[in-house]
């Protein structure tokens, strides 16, 4: 699995000198690769969730900055491109992290040297993400093996934290792919994840492509599945984890963490170091993206003839609120699964990691 770029969510086209991304708003019904050939196209792709998922947002933005610098390497161009990309979505810290990584690399350089250095940095971040997510898979696999008792292991996940949210492997789904590859019988409860349906649209598609058994369930049925003993553990991703271990992830994560705690089920968060915000003291300091209410009031899909359509599910004039994320307090998280190992969701454990990494 993941032996080629066809199982990557973003690939570099050296001929066209642009990246190609999968337009995730069309999945699972249509798999379409799209060239991003302007800074506006990169920003549009992130704002409208053609690409989504914290690590993928960061890597995409890095290539977007490299694209802008290749056209105008001036300090002003660098600043305005960073501002435009940073303004696309507020919650996933990988966006800021990736832009800072590229800027740190090229700001000291003379303008004529910046374009190549920016592209090389973006390519490094892309390959680094693949490596980090593979290691997250290895570290998470050890936790699944500890839980495995000779029968199918039932893992619940929320939203999509698979390879579509990163470059390859994913974060929350990486241990599942590793377990499947190792021959462990594993089944995934895929929570649909209203309102953007990343679970039913993306995770279910990914897992089926990989031959991993999965069942889509309504978000609201997950508590009963846990209470009736049908869930061995929950694994989710993160968009920003604070220095005290609080986890900001797709809205609905907090409710699953509460149900898991009530049923004494391990609740794991899988994330790369790039998703830890060392400057953020706790979850209350994390900006929660408020998306268009229309996403709650309508559903997109295809009709019986396979034609794309969007239907309104509420009466005209109905009001809706659409927070895209929530914060799960560190005390509800059993462990943080990173590329550097498994850590307690606590300020002390993360401080140990920070010192280990010299951040
Ligand atoms: C591996 S990060 C995945 C993370 O990103 C998703 O948010 P969105 O689809 O809005 O970008 C969700 O929170 C996932 O857990």
UniProtKB/TrEMBL annotation:
Known pathway: Amino-acid biosynthesis; L-methionine biosynthesis via salvage pathway; L-methionine from S-methyl-5-thio-alpha-D-ribose 1-phosphate: step 1/6
Keywords: Amino-acid biosynthesis, Isomerase, Methionine biosynthesis
Record-level Gene Ontology MF annotations: S-methyl-5-thioribose-1-phosphate isomerase activity
Record EC number: 5.3.1.23
Pfam families (alphabetical): IF-2B
Catalytic activity: 5-(methylsulfanyl)-alpha-D-ribose 1-phosphate = 5-(methylsulfanyl)-D-ribulose 1-phosphate; 5-deoxy-alpha-D-ribose 1-phosphate = 5-deoxy-D-ribulose 1-phosphate
GO BP terms: L-methionine salvage from methylthioadenosine
Domain of life of the native organism: Bacteria
HAMAP family: Salvage_MtnA
Function in brief: Catalyzes the interconversion of methylthioribose-1-phosphate (MTR-1-P) into methylthioribulose-1-phosphate (MTRu-1-P). Also catalyzes the interconversion of 5-deoxyribose 1-phosphate and 5-deoxyribulose 1-phosphate. Part of a bifunctional DHAP-shunt salvage pathway for SAM by-products.
Name of the molecule in the record: Methylthioribose-1-phosphate isomerase
Source organism of the structure: Pseudohalioglobus sediminis
The organism's taxonomic lineage, starting at the top: Bacteria, Pseudomonadati, Pseudomonadota, Gammaproteobacteria, Cellvibrionales
UniProt gene name: mtnA
């Amino acid at each position: 699995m993941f032996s080629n770029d066809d199982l990557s969510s973003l690939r570099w086209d050296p001929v066209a000198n642009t990246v190609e991304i999968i337009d995730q708003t069309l999945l699972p019904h249509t798999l379409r690769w799209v060239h991003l050939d302007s800074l506006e196209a990169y920003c549009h792709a992130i704002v409208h969730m053609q690409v989504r998922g914290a690590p993928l947002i960061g890597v995409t933005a890095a290539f977007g900055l490299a694209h802008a610098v290749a056209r105008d390497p001036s300090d002003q161009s660098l600043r305005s491109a960073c501002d435009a990309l940073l303004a696309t979505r507020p919650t996933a810290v990988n966006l800021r992290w990736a832009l800072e990584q590229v800027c740190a690399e090229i700001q000291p350089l003379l303008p004529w040297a910046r374009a190549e250095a920016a592209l090389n940095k973006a390519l490094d971040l892309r390959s680094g993400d693949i490596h980090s997510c593979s290691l997250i898979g290895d570290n998470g696999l050890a936790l699944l093996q500890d839980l495995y008792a000779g029968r199918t292991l039932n893992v619940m996940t929320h939203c999509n934290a698979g390879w579509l949210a990163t470059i390859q492997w994913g974060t929350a789904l990486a241990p599942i792919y590793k377990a499947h590859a190792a021959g462990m019988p594993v089944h995934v409860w895929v929570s649909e994840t209203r309102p953007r349906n990343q679970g039913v649209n993306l995770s279910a598609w990914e897992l089926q492509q990989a031959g991993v058994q999965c069942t889509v369930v309504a978000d609201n049925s997950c508590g009963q599945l846990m209470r009736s003993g049908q869930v061995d553990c929950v694994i989710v991703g993160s968009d920003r984890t604070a220095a005290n271990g609080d986890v900001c992830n797709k809205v609905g994560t907090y409710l699953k963490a509460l149900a898991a705690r009530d049923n004494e089920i391990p609740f794991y968060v899988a994330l790369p170091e790039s998703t830890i915000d060392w400057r953020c003291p706790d979850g209350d300091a994390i900006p929660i993206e408020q998306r268009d209410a229309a996403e709650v009031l309508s559903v997109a899909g295809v009709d019986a003839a396979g034609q794309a359509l969007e239907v309104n599910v509420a009466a005209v004039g109905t009001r809706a609120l659409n927070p895209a994320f929530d914060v799960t307090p560190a005390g509800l998280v059993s462990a943080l699964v990173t590329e550097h190992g498994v850590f307690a969701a606590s300020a002390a454990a993360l401080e140990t990691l920070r010192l280990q990494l010299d951040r």
